[in-house]
């Protein structure tokens, strides 16, 4: 029903991802090379029939779309009165950091984690307190003893959790989230949960909203959600945030409104409504396709580049590749691969502690493009090993 095999030429379209040299292949930034669901495109076309694009407001069905989606798919009912529009997840997190903390304060993160969190924290004059995840050679887990010591010994009042985790693809269990919530609440630390990747999940697997893990988590968290990653709508700056604790909710409203993030553009609400009311079949097909892409990468690495280990994760369309065996810093490794083959990957060092021997690969692309990328990776790795 839906075709994800067609390669769409995105060069010369003002694409941030594809602003590269002619021979290069970008598999770095979290931006899919698939068109969005046709049901969403149809909603845009309908909106375009009216030629005025003035200031907008949220319709009732925007609230209904979010609430219904999370209740139906993720078994969590968001209170309508706690739900707010936000013009982007990263801008929203940036706003919370600036309004909930003071310059010099520490923000806690489990690392390696999304690089823009560092930019938000350090750009606001705050400090990053990294708590490195345990890595078994195949998967990641939280070292709760290490986390508790770090939280107790810090004056921090905020922790950012990425759920599912970017870049490792880890989908945190209910028990993991519950323990994180308990440690933070006991030490007066509020949790910001970035759940933007929550709808890109291995078929038959399920993500757990942080706020649903326990009453403690529900009452001590601020959650950011959006259709943008799952439906490839990042350029629209359409997201939502909720905090079910009344005191937190009021502080979130104040922050988001002061930073002018509370008003949707002319297409932001229509996109979210169409995604969450009409996009479910498309999303199911997308998740199947991404899972097949993941299997292609797994098998290719095993057969062709066994020194590169795929770290299995059930979330996101971003693969975390363990390149420890080469003993080369990831920034140098990514640079040499790009120079040699044109393949543009993200160096794991940008994601903090624990990332310096890893690469991140975006596989949300047609399979022909993926195979091209894998062959380039093989060529780049072989070139490095021959030096």
What does this 3D model show about the protein?
- It is built from twelve helices and 15 strands.
- Strands 2-10-9-8-7-3-4 form a seven-stranded mixed sheet, sandwiched between helices.
- The mean pLDDT is 97.
- It is globular.
- By secondary structure, it is of the alpha/beta class.
- Helices cover 40% and strands 15% of the residues.
- The N and C termini lie far apart (47 Å).
Q: Specify the CATH class of the largest domain.
A: Alpha Beta
- Determine the CATH superfamily of the largest domain: Type I PLP-dependent aspartate aminotransferase-like (Major domain)
Distance between the termini: 47 Å
Number of helices: 12
Helix content: 25-40%
Nearest-integer average pLDDT: 97
Radius of gyration computed on alpha carbons: 21 Å
Strand content is 5-15%
């Amino acid at each position: 029903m839906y075709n994800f095999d067609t390669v769409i030429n995105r060069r010369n379209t003002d694409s941030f991802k594809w602003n590269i040299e002619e021979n290069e292949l970008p598999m770095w930034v979290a931006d899919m090379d698939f068109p969005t669901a046709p049901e969403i495109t149809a909603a845009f076309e309908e909106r375009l029939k009216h030629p005025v694009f003035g200031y907008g407001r949220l319709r009732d069905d925007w609230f209904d779309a979010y609430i219904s989606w999370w209740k139906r798919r993720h078994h969590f009912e968001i209170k309508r009165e706690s739900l707010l529009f936000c013009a982007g997840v990263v801008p929203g997190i940036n706003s919370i950091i600036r309004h909930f903390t003071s310059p010099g304060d520490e923000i806690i993160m489990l690392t390696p984690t999304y690089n823009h969190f560092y930019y938000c924290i350090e750009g606001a004059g705050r400090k990053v307190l990294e708590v490195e995840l345990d890595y078994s050679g195949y998967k990641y887990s939280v070292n709760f003893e290490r986390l508790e010591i770090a939280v107790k010994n810090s004056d921090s009042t905020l922790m950012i959790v990425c759920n599912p985790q970017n870049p490792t693809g880890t989908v945190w269990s209910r028990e993991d989230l519950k323990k994180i919530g308990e440690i933070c609440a006991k030490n007066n630390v509020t949790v910001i949960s970035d759940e933007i990747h929550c709808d890109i999940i291995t078929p038959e697997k399920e993500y757990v909203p942080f706020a649903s893990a326990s009453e403690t988590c529900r009452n001590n968290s601020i959650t950011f959600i959006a259709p943008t990653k799952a439906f490839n709508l990042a350029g629209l700056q359409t997201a939502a945030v909720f905090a079910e604790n009344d005191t937190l909710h009021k502080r979130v409203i104040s922050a988001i409104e002061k930073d002018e993030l509370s008003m949707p553009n002319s297409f932001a609400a229509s996109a979210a409504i169409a995604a969450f009311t009409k996009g479910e079949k498309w999303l199911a097909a997308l998740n199947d396709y991404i899972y097949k892409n993941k299997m292609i990468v797994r098998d290719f690495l095993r057969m062709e580049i066994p020194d590169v280990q795929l770290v299995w994760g059930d979330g996101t369309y971003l693969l975390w590749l363990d390149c420890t065996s080469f003993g080369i810093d990831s920034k140098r490794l990514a640079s040499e691969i790009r120079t040699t083959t044109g393949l543009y990957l993200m160096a794991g060092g940008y994601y903090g502690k624990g990332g310096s021997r890893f690469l991140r690969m975006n596989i949300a692309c047609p399979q022909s493009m993926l195979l091209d990328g894998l062959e380039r990776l093989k060529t780049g790795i072989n070139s490095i090993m021959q030096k």
